[in-house]
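> example.struct
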């Protein structure tokens, strides 16, 4: 059983909520705690508690983390970030539960829990990397104590993936810290799309968590019936316990932080000159993973 801390910007894209449910239903993960990142982290923590309550797992601690990036992002990226508005927070009112976010700071929880653990705890950041970068800065020995399986980045073409774009400087810190990293990026995650029948099957399963996940998908869709959930974040969770889901390649990743046009891009560079700092997912059998995910949420 793999122990993880899930670090999430839950409430934006619906895949964060689906990843949290998947982590607790797959039977392969021991969820040590949840930390939230980016903007209103207190509200995000409340939404995470709603999902845990729906799963009957309110004892899992949830800590609100850092809401602001390490530095202000470049102007072009900042414009995209500022116009982004999550829709899923309505679920906090619709699904009130007994559990509440824990007192204390997410970065302290990450450092204290990992450094005090007898065995390895994997950090699974599925949002911007602000909390993880701060934890590695506060306690550099964390890099020798943990591994990181993150959702973020892209090497197939030069573009900035959202999680990296929201805090490129934090990503630069994380990729340079020396911890073992598995990068689950858009090169593979964009292949993992749920169709309408699969979404309906999740909603029809009848458990509280299924009703909540279905409603979160509808809130995320808004007025568009053509939006289909993409399982970016659940795939990062799955790679913790079954690396065979993806083909990976050792790669030297440079995070661009100085270019307006490419700010936040994860650029592969010559590994013979710099060594490698990540196992990057480059291909996968998406049908196998999507079927596994749907079966997990509906069985």
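> example.seq
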């Amino acid at each position: 059983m793999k122990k993880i801390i899930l670090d999430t910007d839950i409430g934006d894209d619906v895949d964060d909520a689906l990843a949290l449910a998947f982590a607790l239903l797959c039977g392969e993960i021991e969820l040590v705690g949840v930390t939230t990142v980016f903007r209103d982290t207190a509200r995000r923590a409340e939404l995470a508690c709603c999902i845990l309550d729906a799963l009957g797992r309110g004892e899992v601690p949830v800590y609100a983390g850092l809401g602001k990036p390490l530095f202000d992002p470049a102007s072009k990226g900042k414009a995209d970030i500022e116009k982004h508005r999550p829709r899923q927070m309505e679920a906090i009112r619709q699904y009130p539960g007994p559990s509440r976010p824990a007192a204390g700071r997410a970065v302290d929880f990450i450092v204290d829990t990992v450094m005090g653990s007898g065995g390895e705890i994997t950090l699974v950041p599925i949002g911007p990397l602000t909390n993880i970068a701060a934890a590695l800065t506060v306690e550099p020995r964390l890099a020798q104590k943990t591994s990181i399986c993150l959702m973020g980045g892209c090497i197939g073409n030069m573009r900035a993936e959202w999680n990296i774009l929201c805090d490129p400087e934090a990503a630069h810190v994380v990729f340079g810290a020396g911890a073992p990293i598995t990068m689950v990026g858009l090169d593979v995650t964009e292949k993992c799309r749920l169709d309408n029948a699969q979404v309906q099957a999740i909603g029809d399963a009848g458990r509280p968590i299924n009703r909540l996940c279905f409603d979160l998908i509808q809130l995320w869709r808004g007025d568009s019936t053509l939006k289909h959930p993409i399982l970016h974040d659940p795939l990062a969770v799955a790679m913790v316990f079954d690396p065979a889901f993806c083909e990976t390649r050792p790669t030297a990743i440079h995070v661009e932080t100085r270019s307006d046009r490419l700010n936040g891009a994860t650029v592969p560079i010559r590994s013979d000159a710099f060594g490698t700092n990540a196992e990057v997912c480059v291909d996968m059998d998406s049908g196998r993973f999507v079927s596994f995910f749907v079966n997990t949420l509906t069985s």
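> remarks
The chain has 15 helices and nine strands.
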